[in-house]
Amino acid sequence: MNLGIKVKRVILPAILMCCGFQLANAQAISEQDANKLVVTRYMDTLSTPEHESVAAELMSTDHQRIRSEFHNMRHHALGSELMDTAEPLRIAVPDRYEDVDIVMADGNMVAVRYRIKGTHKGNLYGIPATGEKIDIDSAAIFWLADGKITKSWFMADEVGLLRQIGKPLPSRKDGQWEAGPIVLPVMTGDEHLAGLLANPVDSQAYHNKLMINAYKAKNPPAGLLPPVEEYGEGQRRGFTNITDGATPEAAAQYPFRGAFPDRVDKIAGMMAEDKWVMILFRLTATNTQSLFGIPAAGNKVSAYEIGFMEFDGADWAYRWFFGDDLGMMMQLGGSMDYWFPDQ
Q1: Weakly modelled stretches of the chain, pLDDT under 70
Q2: Is the pTM value of this prediction over 0.85?
Q3: Of 280, 326, 338, nearest in space to 179 by CA
Q4: How high is the pLDDT of residue 24?
Q5: Domains of the chain from N-terminus onward
Q6: Which residues is 316 bridged to in the sheet?
Q7: Are 120 and 92 in contact (CB under 8 A)?
Q8: Cα torsion angle, 149, 79, 48, 93, sign
Q9: Closest CA to 37 of 60, 13, 2
Q10: What pLDDT was estimated at residue 79?
Q11: First-to-last CA distance in the chain?
């Protein structure tokens, strides 16, 4: 039985022209490659004066921004005196630029990994200018239809930024302390894996996706996962700011499982292209035990984590995970004292 699929190919001169690519003759390219060109154009202008006009050109009229880069910081400031003093991002970090290192596509989705760099020169969600340099991990996912971006999701390392500028998230006068809302639908790893297995594809990218999905399933079929020692070289752990912020004594509580015995990771999105696999999921659990010295308050937690995995053929060679540390801390009921004990 032939398990291969045909990649849709389309004539897209209009899409290419809108993305700044001039062609003497229309050329057939895959829809995935066309989507990557659209997103690349969007990211190339993200911190430039022309971004507003480019975004209007590339986004659908009903575009939905599911999550902003500084989602928790913005949500915390909204409706408070903090937002009254906050300046637009282009003023708070006037020399900002993006260093993109991964752009991958699968179906109607495009994922991007990048770093935000610049200098904190203005009021950022209630934090006055410090003059400090920032260089933080970030990721984004875009959904497209007919060459237009219909939905977008972003996550920047908010705690990484706070630690680099040396300032905690400021308290509101009303004492409210709430993480930003989470809206993407999810399914368990086993449910997602069942869907993949029901629609097999004869490609290495598909088999690599199966392996990463099995990594997030409770009952994967035998043979999908390699031994733990073959999970690839890890460059970043999920929720690394919480991990790195622990005292040496509290660090002994790693991994997270002890603090979240009922933990279930639920998948919000997954894709594979060539040697890369991206997975977006939510750590969902009840905090019933101390987490790195943070007393358990029995709070429910649902925090995003995104991962980019690289394969060498069928071998899992590299893993990189990035979690929403600030959102998790706010849901746990912890305080900025964890990272800033003297402020």
Answers
A1: 1-27
A2: yes
A3: 326
A4: 43
A5: 9-165 (3.10.450.50), 187-338 (3.10.450.50)
A6: 311
A7: yes
A8: negative
A9: 13
A10: 93
A11: 65
Instruction: State both tokens at 268.
Output: 């919000």
Residues found in the chain: 343
CB 331 within 8 A of CB 282: no
Write down the pLDDT at residue 9.
42
pLDDT, one tens digit per residue, over 140-195 is 999 999 999 999 999 999 999 999 999 999 999 999 999 999 989 999 999 999 99
Decide: residue 1, CB within 10 A, 0-12 exposed, 13-18 middle, 19+ buried: exposed
